[in-house]
Automatic annotation (TrEMBL):
The keyword Metal-binding does not apply. Residues 11-122 form the GtrA/DPMS transmembrane domain. It comes from Anoxybacillus mongoliensis. InterPro entries: GtrA_CellWall_Glycosyl, GtrA_DPMS_TM. Keywords: Membrane, Transmembrane, Transmembrane helix. This is Putative flippase GtrA. It is found in: Membrane.
Length: 128
């Protein structure tokens, strides 16, 4: 792993932490207001995705050029991640407190997003 890859991964993690904070804040606020957790997950995750695209494009991967194609690919990766996180929340809801289900779902989403975003959306082939 090169120094550039390490720096890129570190930036991805920093952006991911900010996305997670935004997502968790929206998710738990909506749940506290009585919204069902599945809808709260969709809204919280969506706000985090908007934050993620802006910061990953401009700071993490420093992408230049086309905006719409990478944004579409970014959305595809995140819809896949959202479906996985919802499924995990659904499976965990019976045996775990919502916080732990959300943590497990979030860790799974991070893995999906890293590989999808790094290898497809902002790959060095499409960025350079």
């Amino acid at each position: 792993m090169t120094l550039n890859n390490i720096v890129t991964f570190f930036r991805f993690i920093v952006v991911g932490v900010s996305n997670t904070l935004v997502d968790f804040f929206v998710f738990f606020s909506l749940v506290a207001l009585g919204m069902p957790y599945m809808w709260a997950q969709i809204f919280g995750y969506s706000v985090g995705v908007m934050n993620s695209y802006i910061w990953n494009r401009s700071w993490t991967f420093r992408a230049k050029g086309a905006i719409m194609k990478p944004f579409f690919c970014f959305l595809v990766v995140n819809v896949c991640s959202l479906m996985v996180t919802i499924a995990i929340l659904h499976v965990c809801k019976e045996g775990l407190p919502i916080f732990w289900g959300k943590m497990i779902a979030t860790m799974s989403g991070i893995a999906i997003n890293w590989f999808g975003i790094r290898m497809w959306v902002f790959s060095t082939k499409s960025v350079s």
